[in-house]
Amino acid sequence: MALQQIDNQTARAVFMDRHALAEPPSGNAKGADLLELIRRLGFVQLDSINTVARAHDMILFSRRPSYRSKNLKHLYERDKALFEHWTHDAAVIPMDYYLHWHLRFQRDADLLKSRWKNWRRDGFEQQFETVLQHIRDHGPVSSSDVGKDEKKGSGGWWDWHPSKTALEFLWRSGALTVVGREGFQKRYDLTERVIEAHLRPGHTPCDADETVDWLCNAALDRLGFATSGELAAFWDTVSSAEAKAWCEKALQDGIVEEIEVACTDGRLRKVMARPGLLDETTSLPPPSGRIRVLSPFDPMLRDRKRAERLFGFHYRIEVFVPEPKRTYGYYVFPLLEGDKLIGRIDMKAHRDCGELRVRAVWPERRVRWSEARSRRLHAELERVRCFANLDRVEFTTDWLKDPK
What we know:
Blueprint: E1 5-6, H1 8-18, H2 31-41, E2 44-45, H3 55-61, H4 69-78, E3 82-86, E4 90-94, H5 102-119, H6 128-138, H7 162-172, E5 176-182, E6 185-190, H8 191-194, H9 208-223, E7 225-226, H10 228-235, H11 240-253, E8 257-262, E9 268-273, H12 277-280, E10 291-293, H13 304-311, E11 332-337, E12 340-350, E13 355-363, H14 371-387, E14 392-395
Parallel strand pairs: 1-8, 13-14
Antiparallel strand pairs: 2-4, 3-4, 5-6, 7-9, 8-9, 10-11, 11-12, 12-13
């Protein structure tokens, strides 16, 4: 029997809808409304680079232009509606999902004990009780508050002192909870003082099968359609084998069905989807025609290969590429218009003089850069300028580049 097929344009519409990018960027971005947006996305990745604004702030701003960074800080640190842990990277996650992170705590503990012995400095396990007692006695700490008598290394992520490694391990394995950040430095407290008792490890048994089932279901709902590998990668807790087994059982139970999605090059890719997804596509909103600046870490772009298959957009972040070898720039932002990624922009906030300085815009091939499109870009950059609390937007004289 032939599988049902979704054409590429419809696939993009589904994917953008699931990532809250199909509807016009508007709406309240505080409190319960902001929390609901984060639930819809699943989590928001945290990143320290602040070329214009940090990744988590750009992710939320691109969907709700009224958003300001203090709104997330209040939700996280004051309201305790979010907790911080790892998916594929550090992220803020709705507190409702905390029970489903018990499995992650267990798996991280097993993984990191063996992995960090090989590439962290020795002695971090001997610091566990010392670090915990220090926090019991003195309250929340950052890494600079512990291990003051330990020899400091280079300061790089690969050369932490033992007490810093202990802090990170105790957080990743659930004994500590990050209660906020100062600048971008994490502050840790005892989980028993932060997380409600009924949510904490030890109070509620962790059933691995139930957790895997929840994680796979939640990933599929947020992607719209996916392979088993994409389901495993979404939260990065479920193994590939577990996701594959879940898909097989879900197919048997009628929870999912296999369909084919068309890529931009016409190839068909087999994926899992909820039954009736094709019927649902008829009611999807048309994508907003407004140009939006996306974070390089936007969830729509997190899987670079999937973004290329669905949108024909080849993107690589070049932060770690030596400047002479960069194709575009240190930290280049993708540009979204409608259901197309139309180009990328190299810009930076120069806070000393209040400028959002645009060095270059590269349209994608087959994108005609009209005056109307330039006006839409200028309007978006004015919104970004206000968001970044800058005074003006400045363009270099040769900012519009030929497609590469």
